[in-house]
Amino acid sequence: MKKKHMIYSLILGVIIIVGIYVQHQLNLTKPASPIDTLRGNFATEPEEYNVLFSFESEDHSFIQYHESTLVDEGTYVKINDNAYLLKSDLQDTYFVLQEDNSFYYYDTILSEPRFIKMIYGSSATVYFDQTYYDKDSLND
pLDDT, tens digit, for every residue of 1-46? Predict the structure, then answer.
């Protein structure tokens, strides 16, 4: 009888250890919710257009690109824990950072305004060079 209880206890112990390990692995795959400081880049999922935001936490500035072309720049203000206000000459709009570090944005700069989902890319800020290069001058 003692042997039977010992086997059941051993099986129960193994199940508990495996359960703790699986729970730990699942927690490692969850995104840190949500990022404390708005910094880095957010982009749309691949669609018929490409929108990208790059946020700089030091001066609370943002730049917005459509198809790698600069379309807006301004500042942002943190309203509360996850709510932000974007301010520029073209827009004053709010968004709420979700648990998975994404946000929905009403893009009025597009020719047909629409809501788009912005997905967190990384904490690195992104800049596209907007300088026009003359191909002929590069060959001289």
Answer: 667 666 766 665 556 665 566 565 555 444 454 567 788 899 988 7
* CB-based contacts of 86, cutoff 8 Å, min separation 6: 62, 74, 75, 76, 92, 93, 94, 95
**Quick check: 120 and 42 in contact, CB under 8 A?**
yes
Question: 70-78 contacts: CB < 8 A, separation 24 or more?
Answer: 70/128, 70/130, 71/109, 72/109, 76/38, 78/38
Q: Rounded to whole angstroms, how far apart are CA atoms 118 and 120? A: 7
How far apart CA 92 and CA 74 sit, in angstroms, is 10
- Global confidence as pTM: 0.65
Q: How many CB atoms lie within 10 A of CB 126?
A: 17
Name 21's Cβ contacts closer than 8 Å, sequence gap at least 6: none
Alpha-carbon distance of 73 to 54, in angstroms, equals: 9
What phi and psi, each to the nearest 5 degrees, are found at residue 105? -130, 130
